[in-house]
Design a protein that fits this description.
By secondary structure, the chain is mainly α. The protein has two domains: 6-60, no CATH class; 97-170. 73% of the residues lie in helices and 5% in strands. A three-stranded antiparallel beta sheet has the order 1-3-2. Strand 2 and strand 3 (36-39) form a beta hairpin. The termini are far apart.
Length: 171
């Protein structure tokens, strides 16, 4: 028997896989003797290379159709043009990324909360004649509105999604 041939069991062991996994690879045997099949390492390597090439080709062109390079270049150029237009609008201040808008709105909301927090003490300081029960009422109302303002941060994503959806509907 040729010394460079291995039976299925030995080939699978040398590859560190089970014989069932080796069967799934679909490597064509180099030689059959009785019930035993023998494989060359070269056949296994070629099988694995073909398998990877098929995977990569399916990722790049899943339908297996011929690629029109001119069309692909035109589409790429168009995407690059659109990307550059968006970058220019951002640099000119006519547009802002959604993440940046969200951060700005979150900062504004935290500032509103701080302003509401100082409202009752400021009123008490400027108008000491106001009864404490009125100041307490102002504090309780302020706290309610602070809580609402702090929860707006949680709703920003939903609000932004709604704005984007409405903008897409107009286009």
């Amino acid at each position: 028997m040729d010394s460079h041939l291995l039976n299925k069991k030995n080939m699978a062991e040398s590859l560190g896989i089970s014989t069932q996994a080796f069967d799934k690879w679909g490597v064509k045997p180099h030689k059959k003797v009785g019930r035993q099949t023998f494989f060359r390492v070269q056949d296994v390597v070629e099988n694995r290379i073909e398998n990877e090439l098929k995977k990569n080709n399916n990722r790049v062109n899943p339908a297996g159709e011929k690629i029109d390079l001119e069309l692909e270049r035109a589409m790429l150029t168009q995407q690059q043009r659109i990307t550059q237009q968006i970058k220019n609008e951002i640099l000119e201040g006519r547009a802002i990324p959604v993440e940046a808008a969200r951060d700005v709105l979150a900062r504004i909301l935290s500032q509103v909360g701080a302003t509401l927090d100082s409202l009752a003490p400021n009123i008490k300081r400027r108008h000491p004649e106001i009864e404490q029960r009125i100041i307490d009422f102002i504090k309780s109302e302020t706290i309610k509105h602070q809580n609402e303002a702090s929860n707006l941060d949680d709703y920003l994503d939903d609000i932004i999604d709604d704005v984007i959806t409405q903008a897409e509907a107009k286009v």
